[in-house]
């Protein structure tokens, strides 16, 4: 069973899942993508013109609000003409983008938002023209909503490095909308509960109304108490206008105000700020990771191109380059520019030849060349650092084992030395004994020599001196004369 699962897992990794019917029906060919990129709606100059026009329209709306007091069309004729021109331009812009994206135009929420604003602007113009001057000049709500067209600039500034910080903040706020909603709900519930308690304790007391003439304004009803609590949690003159008067007529309500400040001002609102900051930090980290991935893909493409140049420089098709061929290759204009992009100078590349030649064959293969460049360029990667640490730990462990073995060998050598010292002493004693034995042997030989000399002399004397026969002289027979 496990073998079958392993084979299925392997098959899934080698062959990714098929696209769904929806994805297949919405598939785009390369020609369609190129066509969209070349469309007028993707032209940077066109988008810059639209962004500038949005800024101008926003300024005109502000000037119109300040200088127009009447609601008749004749009172704002100049601004009406300008708005008509803006509406025509934005209407044609919408048609151009629909022509580019077709029905996919309504998939993007920003496009739906822009479409709604254009429809409202056109409706405002139609209503303004069809109604009499005595009546209201058009859909004033639609005119007020035109100012939100400025939000379209957010989509246009996305990806621009010059406003990267602004886009980061905007994206963090947009991603925190759901959290903001739930925080607002919790704040509303807490404010409502505290407002009910505040109205019950202070608002319904006759003595409070008698001693505080503004009691009905601040705590006369639940809705007024909620507004009062909003003023308290925003710390807007809450001590002089609310806290001190309530403390004089109903001291117990001071606890409610403190609870509102601690829970809402220092608690819930700070949590909201923390969530926004956390989202902005996550977006910044994601953006950094995305940039790192793009940079890594670019570097891989560059290294692949350098490997192709390496193969082209191999004229004899041997699969490797000698030092002379290597020097000639890195001094070409193409390779020089690519090495500069990696932050490697020519002299550094030449000195790396020996390091790249791992097998010490005097030549460098494409694999050794690319591997050497990956290790040299930029800062050390985490994997390289981990490998270096592991190698250092292994070498340190080996060195520790060698030291332990040396200590053991040293102990054994000391023991052998002690034994040798004992053997030396024994040999010295034996040599002394041998010396004495030699002296005795010499003395014995000397005595033997002396004895031999005595025997030789005696033998000589016996041979020379014979015993005389002196029997007549009265000597005993058998006696010798000396």
TrEMBL record:
<keyword id="KW-0812">Transmembrane</keyword>
<dbReference type="InterPro" id="IPR027359">
    <property type="entry name" value="Volt_channel_dom_sf"/>
</dbReference>
<dbReference type="GO" id="GO:0005248">
    <property type="term" value="F:voltage-gated sodium channel activity"/>
</dbReference>
<dbReference type="InterPro" id="IPR002048">
    <property type="entry name" value="EF_hand_dom"/>
</dbReference>
<dbReference type="InterPro" id="IPR043203">
    <property type="entry name" value="VGCC_Ca_Na"/>
</dbReference>
<dbReference type="Pfam" id="PF00520">
    <property type="entry name" value="Ion_trans"/>
</dbReference>
<keyword id="KW-0472">Membrane</keyword>
<feature type="transmembrane region" description="Helical">
    <location>
        <begin position="46"/>
        <end position="65"/>
    </location>
</feature>
<dbReference type="Pfam" id="PF13499">
    <property type="entry name" value="EF-hand_7"/>
</dbReference>
<dbReference type="InterPro" id="IPR011992">
    <property type="entry name" value="EF-hand-dom_pair"/>
</dbReference>
<keyword id="KW-0106">Calcium</keyword>
<dbReference type="InterPro" id="IPR005821">
    <property type="entry name" value="Ion_trans_dom"/>
</dbReference>
<keyword id="KW-1133">Transmembrane helix</keyword>
<dbReference type="GO" id="GO:0001518">
    <property type="term" value="C:voltage-gated sodium channel complex"/>
</dbReference>
<dbReference type="InterPro" id="IPR018247">
    <property type="entry name" value="EF_Hand_1_Ca_BS"/>
</dbReference>
<feature type="transmembrane region" description="Helical">
    <location>
        <begin position="254"/>
        <end position="277"/>
    </location>
</feature>
<feature type="domain" description="EF-hand">
    <location>
        <begin position="301"/>
        <end position="336"/>
    </location>
</feature>
<dbReference type="GO" id="GO:0005509">
    <property type="term" value="F:calcium ion binding"/>
</dbReference>
<feature type="transmembrane region" description="Helical">
    <location>
        <begin position="180"/>
        <end position="202"/>
    </location>
</feature>
<protein>
    <recommendedName>
        <fullName>EF-hand domain-containing protein</fullName>
    </recommendedName>
</protein>
<feature type="transmembrane region" description="Helical">
    <location>
        <begin position="77"/>
        <end position="96"/>
    </location>
</feature>
<feature type="domain" description="EF-hand">
    <location>
        <begin position="344"/>
        <end position="379"/>
    </location>
</feature>
